[in-house]
Amino acid sequence: MDIVTLLGLAVGLSLIIGAIILGGAVDVFINVPGMMIVIGGTLASILVAFPFEEIIQSFKAAFKMFVGRKSRTRDVVNIMVKVAEISRREGLIALENVQTENMVLKKSCQLIADNADPSLIRSTLSIEINSMRRRHQVAQDVFKRLASLAPAFGMMGTLIGLVQMLSQLDDPKSIGPAMAVAILTTFYGSAMSTLFFIPIAAKLKARTLQEQLHLEVIFEGAKSILENNNPRLVYEKLSSFLAPVERETQR
């Protein structure tokens, strides 16, 4: 579970709610019609903009970002070193029996066991990288679009509120409350975009770059094992992917 991401969202939400509570009445920030315009309009527009399957996959990707186990680059490096140790101790053919939930790593081990040409491994992993990029790009696009739609519908709600307010100018006492309600929808849209949609899109992009780096580590590790399955040499080569501090704590 990504505790830091959850903590960031919780802190941001708490600060906003805390500022509202300290400012006085909380009920003035609750407006059901405004929420209907912003939330309902945003969801309706995203259904028009993207296929339903892509929207579902995007929200699943965001959910996995919170609850999924975060893999580190040094963990991938260690795994490839262990693969090198197995290949040196038992031979390349033994890599066919390597058990892992990472399908890309499983495929790489199979290619190593088959003594495949490094160019074949590179082309196979390039396809995996491009496929992963396409899947992740869809999720990023969905949340980027949500980030732009929410403030737009917030402004639309404000315009609706202003029209309703101007239609009641004969009652001066109603102008203040009506203006407050009109501005609330802009607040809803801005809060949803700034606190949720934009950060989630950015986090998904960061995860894409991280997974791409891990695939590169797997490729270089597989190539090194085929060229020279000395675990120490494999580690020395793959350690280039690690930050200096991480290298010092390795092995």
TrEMBL record:
<dbReference type="GO" id="GO:0006935">
    <property type="term" value="P:chemotaxis"/>
</dbReference>
<dbReference type="Pfam" id="PF01618">
    <property type="entry name" value="MotA_ExbB"/>
</dbReference>
<feature type="transmembrane region" description="Helical">
    <location>
        <begin position="28"/>
        <end position="50"/>
    </location>
</feature>
<dbReference type="GO" id="GO:0071978">
    <property type="term" value="P:bacterial-type flagellum-dependent swarming motility"/>
</dbReference>
<feature type="domain" description="MotA/TolQ/ExbB proton channel">
    <location>
        <begin position="99"/>
        <end position="215"/>
    </location>
</feature>
<keyword id="KW-0812">Transmembrane</keyword>
<keyword id="KW-1133">Transmembrane helix</keyword>
<keyword id="KW-0283">Flagellar rotation</keyword>
<dbReference type="InterPro" id="IPR046786">
    <property type="entry name" value="MotA_N"/>
</dbReference>
<dbReference type="InterPro" id="IPR002898">
    <property type="entry name" value="MotA_ExbB_proton_chnl"/>
</dbReference>
<dbReference type="GO" id="GO:0005886">
    <property type="term" value="C:plasma membrane"/>
</dbReference>
<dbReference type="InterPro" id="IPR047055">
    <property type="entry name" value="MotA-like"/>
</dbReference>
<keyword id="KW-1003">Cell membrane</keyword>
<dbReference type="Pfam" id="PF20560">
    <property type="entry name" value="MotA_N"/>
</dbReference>
<keyword id="KW-0813">Transport</keyword>
<feature type="domain" description="Motility protein A N-terminal">
    <location>
        <begin position="7"/>
        <end position="88"/>
    </location>
</feature>
<feature type="transmembrane region" description="Helical">
    <location>
        <begin position="178"/>
        <end position="202"/>
    </location>
</feature>
<keyword id="KW-0653">Protein transport</keyword>
<keyword id="KW-0472">Membrane</keyword>
<comment type="similarity">
    <text>Belongs to the exbB/tolQ family.</text>
</comment>
<dbReference type="GO" id="GO:0015031">
    <property type="term" value="P:protein transport"/>
</dbReference>
<protein>
    <submittedName>
        <fullName>Chemotaxis protein PomA</fullName>
    </submittedName>
</protein>
<feature type="transmembrane region" description="Helical">
    <location>
        <begin position="142"/>
        <end position="166"/>
    </location>
</feature>
